[in-house]
Design brief:
The chain is an all-alpha fold. It is built from 19 helices and 2 strands. Helix 7 runs antiparallel to helix 8. It is elongated and about 130 Å long. This is Zn(2)-C6 fungal-type domain-containing protein.
């Protein structure tokens, strides 16, 4: 007897599954034909306060301060500062910035791309270690936008502002020292604006972003200066030196005259004056290329007289008495009298109205101070202090945010110092006259 067995045909199934290199092994087959169960992710703690580097790389941050382990291991800059705050945004957007003189800024995304590309292979030496340039975060791009649209419109005369807005972004794309200097001064400008908007902020303390930018700027700037100079870098070096002057002038330890020099002594207080010599040194080193420079007109502004702005700000009697106090005669010159060069730098400013239009005429004074005169300031020589206070009093009226805090605080500090430490009736009378001219009367008693 034959038996016939009828078996049900098995259902067709596709057991092939694509293998992806990210998988550690081939997918396991299933006897019942069902696809393998999906592996569930284990519960984990999310990093919501990690550093910007880990967030940008989409990696978990252990949130150790001041540097997380991931950044330490890879030699990266660890930054915990927020990308933006509502307070800063409201302060900077209360009056929408407009392009200067009908100009338009470069599209910021393309600028950011060029920055990242140009600095990708640049090495920067910082704290004795050489590492790749840090990536540009949203905060860096915001700082560049602030520099282009706001800060450039506050530096120097309108013609200088126009050149800065057009030339600095173009030059900084391939030169880290200029880029970081521009970002640093933009952050300082932001802090000054916030200090005016809120009394809760400490005006004198730099932010971590400022310190980071300045460290990178100075290290790369010194590295470039140690190499032979070329015509291609002449403009960028000149602009960097002028911006560093503004940075050093704006960096003060206190705006309280009683805590300002010369009422307080510090061996490093006058170091900022050394930075003011930078543009003259760089200008002399790059003079052979200046005629081909796009910034030549910037330095021409320092010498071109301004018509229609003269007025009698200083009584000629005061000037004569000051020259007499400093023993200036017709036979005096810079080699025989340490006050001569400083007084001659001030002479053209006597009848010039301090204003934003004439600002460039006032800047060369502080950069032309001779070493012997600076030594007199270091020992608090009364006549040297009086000359500097006079320039401070004029400079306050220029309305430059980076200049006014130091000029105001130290002018008042010098007047009170000389008032409390008189060295003769003639000097005391000149101090009282100066206080009246600049609007800072000396303290009583």
């Amino acid at each position: 007897m034959n038996f016939v067995f009828r078996l049900k045909a098995p259902e067709a199934r596709n057991t092939f599954q694509a293998y992806h290199p990210s998988q550690r092994s081939f997918p396991a087959s299933s006897v019942d034909g069902l696809p393998p169960k999906r592996r569930l992710r284990k519960a984990h703690n999310k990093s919501r306060s990690g550093c910007q580097e880990c967030k940008g790389r989409k990696r978990k941050c252990d949130e150790e301060r001041p540097r997380c382990r991931s950044c330490q291991k890879r030699g990266l800059h660890c930054d915990y500062s927020p990308l933006a705050t509502r307070k800063i945004a409201s302060c900077l957007t209360d009056s929408p910035p407009t392009p200067l003189l009908g100009m338009t800024c470069s599209p910021l995304p393309s600028v950011a791309t060029l920055i990242d590309e140009s600095l990708r292979h640049t090495s920067v030496e910082l704290n004795g270690q050489t590492s790749l340039s840090p990536r540009f975060f949203t905060e860096d791009i915001d700082s560049l936008r602030l520099f282009q649209e706001v800060t450039c419109g506050t530096l120097g005369t309108p013609s200088i502002q126009r050149i800065y807005q057009l030339q600095i972004p173009r030059l900084a794309i391939s030169r880290p020292y200029l880029m970081y200097t521009a970002l640093a001064i933009a952050q300082i400008h932001r802090r000054h604006r916030l200090a005016l908007a809120s009394s809760d902020l400490n005006f004198e303390n730099p932010t971590p972003s400022e310190s980071r930018y300045m460290s990178l700027a100075l290290s790369s700037y010194n590295e470039r200066l140690s190499a032979p100079l070329t015509a291609a870098d002449a403009d960028a070096l000149l602009v960097t030196s002028t911006l560093l002057c503004a940075v050093s002038f704006a960096s003060i330890s206190s705006t309280d005259p009683s805590l300002s020099w010369p009422n307080t002594a510090s061996p490093t207080h006058l170091d900022w004056l050394k930075v003011q010599q930078g543009p003259g040194i760089v200008l002399a080193a790059t003079a052979i290329w200046l005629s081909q420079s796009a910034l030549f007109s910037t330095f021409e502004d320092f010498d071109v007289p301004t018509s229609g702005s003269e007025q009698n700000l200083i009584d000629t009697t005061f000037w004569d008495d000051l020259c007499s106090l400093c023993e200036i005669t017709e036979a005096s010159d810079a080699s025989t009298d340490h006050y001569y060069a400083a007084l001659m730098s001030l002479a053209p400013l006597i009848s010039l109205e301090p204003s934003a239009v004439n600002a460039a005429r006032f800047f060369p004074f502080i950069g032309s101070l001779q070493p012997d005169f600076v030594k007199l300031l270091a020992i608090k020589d009364p006549r040297a202090l009086l000359i500097l206070a006079w320039w401070y009093g004029l400079a306050v009226r220029l309305g430059q945010w980076w200049l006014t805090p130091r000029a105001r605080a130290e002018c008042f500090a010098i007047i009170t110092f000389l008032d409390h430490n008189p060295t003769g009736e003639k000097l005391k009378d000149l101090v009282l006259t100066l206080a009246t001219i600049v609007g800072f009367p000396p303290s009583e008693g």
